[in-house]
Specification:
Strand 3 and strand 4 form a beta hairpin. The strands form 5 sheets. Strands 1, 11, 12, 14, 16, 17, 18 and 20 form an 8-stranded mixed sheet that branches. The chain is mainly beta. The protein has helices at 18-24, 175-180, 339-348; strands at residues 56-57, 66-68, 71-86, 89-96, 105-108, 112-119, 128-130, 154-160, 165-170, 185-190, 201-210, 229-232, 243-246, 250-257, 263-267, 272-277, 280-281, 288-290, 292-295, 300-306, 310-316, 379-382, 385-389, 393-399. Bound molecules: copper (II) ion.
Length: 458
């Protein structure tokens, strides 16, 4: 433990000085830097005259390295971690260097890298470098290309990065359990020429999911499909940081999917282009425009757009994936008038609450008793009230007046005058009379306007 230190403060962005890396250079193994905060940490600047634009890992961080004999050396430690999923809930996960997901590994096309992996889990593990072309013996599939890394042992992987792109790493040993416990990370290979694929802001995160019973903290690892926490980098809204950009910035968001299902990621506002896939960068002429892009299991996508001022929702379009744990297993009550039965039950169970008879929006506002360490099914408050979202949801916050490296949450958007939807309070326009129900339609081709009924108060 003596060679492990927390370099970063608990909150806010901190740069890791080059001095900290070189001091570790004296040790036999590179220092295993640890980060336990779930706040987005700005990445360390590249220290070795191989400039690239580092990515910003959403609610995550990038792993520092040292250079020894021309080789970039990293040290990952597989170990149990405690992760705050969102304020009010922490989970007992497995990850790397204090966090789940583990730190983002960033290097440059052409680099020779050496990654030490120390196993501090209670069982064997290995690391597979997902998407990277390397010597087969470095591929990290336990049993197939290497023996598993025994508890307490360190393995070393070494290879040359041949292609730029967005990749991932995860275990290939007991992977159902180890990935259900949160073991994964991003692996970004930057192009050799920093002008290639250049953008102003470059974000990355991994789609992951957990099944953690309300009131508990450890994932149920045998779950195949019925997860109840849908997360980005092991965070659920409102615990997911915003994507902050300046008006006109070219923004890239890289997304990898290590859940058990696909996620159609939808962004409001500016249209985006899919510029990267698992296979690498899409040539300019072949990029395609979308507002929702489906990301299959094991896939990676990079999207890019020109930022337009506003607060733009970005979320998975499977609506269950923007719900937290309490949204599952609730019966549908729309249209059921159970006032009478509710009164009777309330006499027996004082906390009893009727749920969802007019839809479930009310549940975003109400305070209902839930077990400790459990997120309400949908939370998050915006400038106009409850957002009614959880899970895989965040906000792209674009402002005119941000500095180049400013990623601080700028607060809520101030809508210019005349650009905000508001209640209509003038006199209602006259509507044509409703056709009488008994009268047969005089002409099948005539448009019929149905007047709303049963809304006496509107
Ligand atoms: Cu989804």
């Amino acid at each position: 433990m003596s060679n492990r230190r927390t370099f970063f403060k608990a909150a806010g962005a901190t740069f890791l000085g080059a001095a900290a890396v070189s001091r570790a250079g004296a040790a036999l193994l590179p220092e295993a830097v640890v980060q336990t905060s779930a706040a987005t940490q700005l990445p360390p600047p590249p220290p070795n005259g191989r400039p690239y634009q580092p990515i910003v890992t959403l609610n995550g961080w990038s792993l520092p390295w040292r250079v020894k004999d021309g080789v970039k050396e990293f040290h990952l430690v597989a170990e149990p971690v405690v992760r705050e999923i969102a304020p009010g809930m922490t989970a007992n996960l497995w990850g790397y260097n204090g966090s789940s997901p583990g730190p983002t590994i960033e290097a440059v096309e052409g680099d020779r890298i050496r990654i030490f992996v120390t196993n501090k889990l209670p069982e064997v593990t290995s690391v597979h470098w997902h998407g990277i072309l390397l010597p087969s013996g470095m591929d990290g599939v336990s049993g197939l290309t290497q023996p598993p890394i025994q508890v307490g042992k360190t393995f070393v992987y070494e290879f040359v990065l041949q292609r730029a792109g967005t990749f991932m790493y995860h275990p290939h040993a007991d992977e159902m359990v180890q990935m259900a416990m949160g073991m994964m990370g991003l692996f970004i290979v930057h192009p050799k020429d920093p002008r290639q694929f250049k953008v102003d802001r470059d974000f990355g995160f991994i789609l992951n999911a957990y099944d953690i019973a309300p009131g508990s903290a450890t994932p149920q690892v045998n779950t195949m499909l019925d997860f109840n926490l849908w997360t980005w980098n092991s965070r659920a809204f409102p615990g997911i940081d915003p994507f902050v950009a300046r008006t006109g910035d070219r923004v890239r968001i890289r997304v990898g999917n290590l859940t058990m299902t696909n996620h159609p990621i939808h962004m409001h506002g500016p249209h985006f282009e899919v510029t990267g896939t698992d296979g690498g960068w899409v040539p300019k002429s072949a990029r395609w425009p979308e507002v929702t892009t489906d990301i299959g299991v094991g896939q990676m996508r990079a999207i890019e757009f020109d930022a337009v001022a506003g607060d733009w929702a970005i979320h998975c379009h499977k609506s269950h994936h923007t719900m937290n744990a309490m949204g599952h297993g609730v019966p549908t009550m729309i249209g059921v008038d159970h006032r009478d039965i509710a009164r009777k039950i309330s006499n027996l169970v004082p906390d009893y609450m009727v749920m969802g008879e007019r839809g479930m929006h009310d549940m975003a506002e109400m305070e209902m008793p839930i077990p400790d360490n459990t997120l309400p099914m949908m939370t998050g408050t915006g400038p106009f009230g409850p957002v009614g979202m959880g899970g895989m949801f965040s906000v792209v916050k674009v402002r005119d007046d941000l500095a180049r490296g400013d990623y601080k949450d700028p607060g809520w958007y101030r809508h210019p005058a005349g650009t905000l939807a508001t209640e209509y309070t003038s006199e209602a326009p006259a509507l044509p009379a409703a056709p009488r129900a008994s009268a047969p339609p005089s002409d099948a081709g005539t448009l019929q306007v149905r007047k709303p009924s049963g809304h006496a108060n509107h």
